[in-house]
């Protein structure tokens, strides 16, 4: 699985990939990015955000360094840097303490990220069916990749074939937690 970026469609849909389940169908904690390096001498860190909603990441009050939410970091300050988000955390007051966080993946609680009840994350789509507007099932989403212009869904057909589908808004008609309705390019399936 590739926990790197988001898939953004329309109507307040944003998607993140995560690998942790809390026993329910939806993961409680979702990967949001990775701390890249320290910034300055007072414990600030450069954070690579893996989503489309930087304002949402900047508004987080708590982030976690593990997928179960056991190790919390209270956000003291969050601001935009030149290329990345800059975080300062309570208890991380110098460059040496901040250096210990280098290359750590951060998680956030689903409810802290969701814009509203219609928000669907990558993690919700993995394993769900993809069908056309007539109800014909093409297969199930096995993985999601971001390659720039649009995201790519890896769809496994019932014959075991893996198809790479360009999940551009022109082809994706509807996305819910139960799957997606698409209008694929002719000849893809």
Tell me about this structure.
The chain folds into 2 domains: 7-113, Elongation Factor Tu (Ef-tu), domain 3 (Beta Barrel); 126-182, PRC-barrel domain (SH3 type barrels). The chain is 10% helix and 40% strand. It has 4 helices and 14 strands. Strands 5-6-7-4-3-8 form a 6-stranded antiparallel beta sheet. The chain is elongated.
Task: Please outline the helices and strands.
Layout: E1 7-8, E2 14-15, E3 29-39, E4 44-49, H1 54-58, E5 62-64, E6 72-80, E7 85-89, H2 95-99, E8 105-109, H3 110-113, H4 122-125, E9 129-131, E10 137-146, E11 151-156, E12 162-166, E13 172-176, E14 179-182
Parallel strand pairs: 9-14
Antiparallel strand pairs: 1-2, 3-4, 3-8, 4-7, 5-6, 6-7, 9-10, 10-11, 11-12, 13-14
Quick structural gist:
The protein has 189 residues and is mainly beta.
């Amino acid at each position: 699985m590739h926990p790197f970026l988001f898939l953004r469609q329309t109507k307040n849909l944003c998607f993140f990939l995560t690998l942790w389940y809390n026993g329910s169908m939806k993961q409680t904690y979702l990967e949001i990015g990775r701390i890249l390096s320290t910034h300055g001498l007072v414990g600030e860190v450069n954070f690579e955000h893996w989503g489309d909603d930087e304002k949402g990441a900047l508004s987080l009050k708590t982030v976690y360094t593990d997928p179960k939410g056991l190790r919390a970091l209270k956000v003291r300050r969050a601001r935009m840097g030149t290329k990345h988000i800059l975080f300062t955390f309570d208890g991380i007051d110098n460059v040496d303490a901040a250096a210990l966080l280098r290359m750590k993946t951060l998680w956030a609680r689903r409810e802290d990220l969701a814009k509203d009840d219609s928000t669907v994350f990558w993690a919700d789509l993995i394993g769900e069916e993809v069908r056309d507007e007539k109800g014909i099932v093409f297969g199930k989403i096995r993985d999601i990749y971001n390659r720039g212009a649009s995201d790519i869904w890896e769809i496994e057909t019932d014959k075991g074939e893996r198809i790479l589908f360009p999940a551009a808004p022109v082809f994706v008609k509807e996305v819910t937690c139960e799957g997606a309705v698409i209008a694929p390019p002719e000849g893809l399936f």
